[in-house]
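User: Here's a structure from my thesis project, written as C-alpha cells. My advisor, Dr. K., wants to see whether a designed sequence matches the one we expressed. Can you design one independently, without my sequence as a hint?
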C-alpha cells in the first residue's frame, strides 16, 4: 500500500514538473509576443524558474522513485524567493543609491542565499568547472582586493551587473526561444531530415559514413548548440556505421566529436553565444552570423577533406547500399522541413529582431510538418507538449550557466581584475600580437574546459578581449577569436568533453581519440589566427579581395588536412608530410610572396607522386611509402 501511495505521489510530482516546464516555455513565448517587462522582472522570473526546477529535477532518482528529497524541495522554494527578491522590492531597489546606501540585513541574507544557490544549481546542471571558477573569483574579491564584501554582494545580486546582467538577459530573451524552436523542429522530424540529407549527399563517396557525420552534425549542431548533446544525438547512428565501414574506433569517435563541436561555430544558432556576442558588440545578430560563416565553412572543409584523405589512405568505402537514400526522395518526402530555418533566416535578413525571427520560426514549424503526409504524423498534441517540455529542460543548464557566469563577470567589473589581466597579457607578450594571441588561446582553452560554450565565451570576453583590442585587433575578430577557443576546449585534452561523450559510443581509448580529434580539428586552431591577421575572411572588404583570400585559405586548410592525414593522391613520406605542413602555413599567412613560395614547395613535394601515380601499383606503393597507421 505504501509503495502504491509513493508511486502516486511520484506521478503527481512528475505531472506537476511537466506542467511547470511547459508553462515556462509558454511564458517566454508570450513575453516575446506581448513585450518584455522590466529587466528585474523578466530576468528574476527566468533565474527563479531555472534554479527551482534544477533543484526539483536533479539528484533524486533513486529506486525509480521520481520524488526529490525534502531538502531539495526546501532549496527550490528558497531559490525561488531569493531570485525574485529584487522583483518583489522594486520600489526599494529603485529608490536607493547603488554602492552608496548600505545593504540591510535582509539584503545581505537574500544576496548570499542567491549567490550560493546559483553556484549549486550550476554545479548540478553543468558540472563543477564553472562554479569552481566563480568561487575562485569570489575568494579573490573578498581577500585580495579593497572592495567591501557588501559591495560585491550588491553588484552580484541587487544590480543588473551580476547574476541579472547581460548573460541572463540574453538567456531569457534570445536563447530560450531558439532552444524551444530547436526542440520543436526535432520533434517534427528535422533530425531525420538532416541525417537522410547527409547520407544522400555524401553516402556514396569514399569514407561516406564519416562524411555523413560531418554534414549531419554540422547541420544539427548549428541548431542544437551543444557539442555533447549533438554527439549523443547523431553519434548513435554515425559512430557504429563509421566503425562498421573500417575506420578505427578512435577515428570514429573523433570524427563525431569534431563535427559536433564545429556545429557551435556554424550559424544560425552558434551554441547560443552568437546572441551574447551581438549584445556585447552592439550589432545585429545577422552581422555576427555573417562574420562567422566563412571561418565555420573553412573548419568544415578541413574536416571533410581530413576524412576523405583518411578514407583513401585506409581504403574505406561508401555507406552500404541498403542504408543509402536518393536525394530526390529525401527532398520530396522531407525537404519541406527546411522551411522553418528559411523563415528564421529570411526574417533576420529583412531586419527583424532575433526574438521576433525565432517566434516566426516557432510559428512555422507545425504548419510546415503538416504540409505532407510523410511528416504529418509528427503533428500531435503530445509531440507539441513534449517539445515545449524538452525546450524548457534544455534551457535550465544554459540559464544556470549564464547566471553563474554573471557572478564571474560581476566580480571582474567591480574589482578591476579584467584590466589587470589585460595588462598582464600585454606585458607578457611584450606588445607582440602573435604572442598575445598564443597566450589568449591557451588561457581560452583552459578557461573553457568543462564549460558550456556561452559561459566560457562570456568569461573570456571579460578577461581576454580588452587585451586583444588594445593591441589593434578588430573587435569582431577579437570576440570570434576567444569564442573559437571556448568551443575548441571540447576536443582539447585533458578535459575534452565532446570526445568523452563520443567515446561512450565508440569504446575507444580516450587519448587515441583525443589525438585524432586534434588532427581532424586542427584547422579550428589556425583559422582564428587567420581572421585576426586577415579580417577579409570575415567578409570585410572588396569582393575580389574576399574571393582571393578565401580561395587561398581554402587551399591552405585542405593541404593542412592532407599533411595531418599523411595522404594526398597517395600515401605520403615523412618529408612530403613536413613540406605539406609548411605549405599549409604559407597559404594561411596573408602575404602573396609567402603564398607563392608555398606553392612552389607544394609542387616540389607532390611532383614524385604526380609523376609516378599512374605507374605505381597498390603493392609497390605500399613498399615505397610509409604504410598507413592502423
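Assistant: Designed independently from the structure alone:
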Amino acid at each position: 500500500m505504501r509503495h502504491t501511495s509513493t508511486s502516486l505521489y511520484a506521478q503527481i510530482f512528475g505531472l506537476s514538473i511537466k506542467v511547470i516546464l511547459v508553462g515556462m516555455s509558454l511564458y517566454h513565448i508570450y513575453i516575446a509576443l506581448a513585450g518584455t517587462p522590466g529587466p528585474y522582472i523578466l530576468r528574476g522570473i527566468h533565474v527563479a524558474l531555472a534554479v527551482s526546477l534544477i533543484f526539483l529535477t536533479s539528484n533524486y532518482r533513486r529506486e525509480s522513485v521520481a520524488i526529490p528529497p525534502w531538502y531539495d524541495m526546501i532549496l527550490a522554494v528558497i531559490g525561488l524567493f531569493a531570485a525574485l527578491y529584487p522583483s518583489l522590492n522594486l520600489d526599494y531597489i529603485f529608490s536607493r543609491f547603488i554602492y552608496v546606501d548600505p545593504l540591510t540585513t535582509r539584503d545581505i541574507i537574500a544576496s548570499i542565499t542567491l549567490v550560493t544557490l546559483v553556484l549549486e544549481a550550476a554545479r548540478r546542471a553543468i558540472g563543477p568547472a564553472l562554479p569552481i571558477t566563480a568561487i575562485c573569483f569570489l575568494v579573490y574579491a573578498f581577500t585580495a582586493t579593497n572592495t567591501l564584501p557588501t559591495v560585491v554582494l550588491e553588484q552580484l545580486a541587487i544590480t543588473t551587473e551580476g547574476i541579472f546582467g547581460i548573460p541572463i538577459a540574453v538567456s531569457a530573451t534570445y536563447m530560450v526561444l531558439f532552444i524551444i524552436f530547436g526542440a520543436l523542429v526535432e520533434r517534427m522530424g528535422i533530425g531525420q531530415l538532416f541525417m537522410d540529407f547527409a547520407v544522400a549527399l555524401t553516402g556514396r563517396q569514399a569514407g561516406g559514413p564519416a562524411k555523413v557525420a560531418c554534414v549531419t552534425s554540422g547541420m544539427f549542431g548549428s541548431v542544437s548548440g551543444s557539442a555533447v548533446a549533438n554527439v549523443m544525438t547523431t553519434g548513435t547512428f554515425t559512430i557504429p556505421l563509421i566503425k562498421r565501414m573500417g575506420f578505427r574506433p578512435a577515428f570514429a569517435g573523433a570524427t563525431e566529436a569534431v563535427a559536433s563541436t564545429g556545429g557551435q561555430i556554424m550559424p544560425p544558432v552558434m551554441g547560443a553565444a552568437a546572441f551574447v556576442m551581438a549584445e556585447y558588440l552592439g550589432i545585429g545578430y545577422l552581422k555576427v552570423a555573417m562574420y562567422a560563416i566563412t571561418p565555420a565553412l573553412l573548419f568544415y572543409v578541413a574536416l571533410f577533406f581530413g576524412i576523405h584523405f583518411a578514407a583513401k589512405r585506409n581504403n574505406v568505402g561508401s555507406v552500404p547500399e541498403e542504408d543509402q537514400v536518393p536525394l530526390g526522395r529525401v527532398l520530396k518526402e522531407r525537404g519541406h522541413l527546411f522551411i522553418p530555418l528559411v523563415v528564421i533566416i529570411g526574417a533576420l535578413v529583412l531586419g527583424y529582431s532575433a526574438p521576433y525571427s525565432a517566434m516566426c520560426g516557432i510559428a512555422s514549424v507545425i504548419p510546415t510538418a503538416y504540409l505532407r503526409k510523410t511528416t504529418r504524423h509528427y503533428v500531435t498534441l503530445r509531440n507539441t507538449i513534449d517539445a515545449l517540455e524538452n525546450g524548457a529542460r534544455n534551457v535550465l543548464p544554459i540559464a544556470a550557466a549564464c547566471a553563474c557566469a554573471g557572478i564571474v563577470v560581476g566580480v571582474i567589473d567591480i574589482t578591476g581584475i579584467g584590466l589587470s589581466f589585460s595588462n598582464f597579457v600585454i606585458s607578457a607578450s611584450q606588445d607582440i600580437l602573435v604572442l598575445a594571441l598564443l597566450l589568449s588561446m591557451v588561457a581560452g582553452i583552459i578557461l573553457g574546459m568543462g564549460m558550456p560554450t556561452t559561459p566560457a565565451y562570456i568569461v573570456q570576453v571579460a578577461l581576454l578581449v580588452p587585451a586583444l583590442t588594445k593591441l589593434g585587433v578588430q573587435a569582431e575578430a577579437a570576440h570570434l577569436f576567444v569564442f573559437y577557443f571556448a568551443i575548441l576546449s571540447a576536443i582539447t585534452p585533458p578535459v575534452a568533453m565532446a570526445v568523452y561523450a563520443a567515446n561512450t559510443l565508440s569504446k575507444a581509448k580516450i587519448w587515441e581519440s583525443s589525438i585524432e580529434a586534434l588532427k581532424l580539428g586542427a584547422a579550428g586552431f589556425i583559422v582564428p589566427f587567420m581572421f585576426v591577421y586577415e579580417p577579409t575572411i570575415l567578409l570585410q572588404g572588396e569582393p575580389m579581395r574576399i574571393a582571393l583570400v578565401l580561395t587561398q585559405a581554402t587551399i591552405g586548410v585542405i593541404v593542412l588536412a592532407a599533411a595531418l592525414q599523411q595522404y594526398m593522391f597517395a600515401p605520403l613520406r615523412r618529408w612530403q608530410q613536413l613540406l605539406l605542413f609548411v605549405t599549409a602555413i604559407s597559404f594561411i599567412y596573408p602575404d602573396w610572396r609567402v603564398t607563392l613560395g608555398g606553392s612552389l614547395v607544394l609542387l616540389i613535394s607532390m611532383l614524385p607522386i604526380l609523376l609516378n601515380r599512374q605507374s605505381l601499383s597498390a603493392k609497390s606503393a605500399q613498399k615505397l611509402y610509409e604504410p598507413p597507421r592502423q
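When you compare it with your expressed construct, this may help: Confidence is low (pLDDT under 50) at residues 61-65, 614-630.
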